[in-house]
């Protein structure tokens, strides 16, 4: 719903209307273009009114650093060649403090802040890890920017909200100030009002902490990258690729070998052994994100086959996020060994980058992907093998979740079918069967009758033309109760014959439409007791068996979705009366899909390359107190043996 409203109101917002007015007033036919990272913070679209070049130095989603040096070089080229220039602002809210790691330490011995008598305790050592060359280069170019954003409560580790803007031209400093009554005294002016740190954190001490946090982040990354083996029924994949994976195409054997080295040289070693081994130290410098944020995702296998459904992987990662985060006020920190966050990578924004990430996860499809985010806000978890304890806890939880996903995605030989109009005598082959069933209906008039297969049989075998199977009838329809105990047969030994399949649509997400219908709500017509008044066309059994779709016009399903759970629906869908709205009935045989793109005007299909007899239209006539649901159907004959 929020995304729909944002899209629907875009042409009418003050940002759009104001821009269009200015362009029209000054005759601008070629408006300026904005180039912003796909990993942008949500504040960037809001700030596009201040026309400038933008650099993203340390994204809060992925810990990635944009190529600021290239942006500076672009400005210099425009200055030399065209005499043009532009303002460059660096969003260093997360990554700005890491610039302190590039400042040479003062002359003399610098205390590492170790406790007395612990100098020889190797388990408590947390070494510093230098930034990789890419990050060092572009953070160093912050000095050429015109303004910089930095947030002390992020990588500055300040335990209260704060923010800062640093301007090259000091005359701009009065535009934005940050004042907090907990910090500043009324009437006093402090450089902290305009400075980067807000409360003036010492960059010397912070350099040490961030170096240790960077080491911790890389070591946690190594755990994520090597957590799953080939014989596991799950896979954990970081967004940042291993060095060997960046080869095109990557060699699977070499990837396994590099993972083995990471386990051997980093994951299983204490910190002191890592910094004393040149191979280990060189390897840990090459891996991990630009800064201190790890992004990763999980997937699962069933019978050694990797799940390819993006939505099922999203569900798994959502369950893991719920397990390792605070989602309700009743939860407390004693239940959480560590905290992870989550975000959605949208296919439209991330393009080929996300496509490649899905490929590494074994996924197929263009759906958005939910990922997990591990932020290092403490530089000391590597002490006493603590990271191994945390990641083992995650691994055991992941194994439990995979069992749930296996049950969820395993095709069962147990099936149930709704009996839509049991009073119709033609579904029973003899009067004895009908009388016995009608007696059951009298005893349970308010309950729904369900047909269950009695023998173990797969659904593909049931829906074959001419197939038959043994079944029983039970009442009630509660899938949650069915998981706890099997249904109780009220009529057994039923033989289902003469099966005719009307419609079959797969529920896997790869078969879903990308968007809900914008201008209508489609429904399958699958039973023969639907009452419709049609001014054109005959609603015959032959046409019905080909498949018919009823479309309610001027009802926007994209606005109503997602619907709540079925048991909570109530009267949330109010269909129009015959004086309101309108309906046309389309041919499933021709159209194939209820959400196919078609041009509708005045309840008619425009420019349709078929005969007019293949679809019908008229006013909607139905009891407005009823709700409709989309259901596929099987036609069957029942016989009680």
UniProtKB/TrEMBL annotation:
Pfam families referenced in this protein's UniProt entry, alphabetically: tyr_de_CO2_C
Domain L-tyrosine decarboxylase C-terminal per the UniProt entry, residue ranges: 298-400
Gene3D superfamilies in the record: Type I PLP-dependent aspartate aminotransferase-like (Major domain) (3.40.640.10)
Transmembrane segments: none
Name recorded for this polypeptide: L-tyrosine decarboxylase C-terminal domain-containing protein
Species assigned in the record: Gigaspora rosea
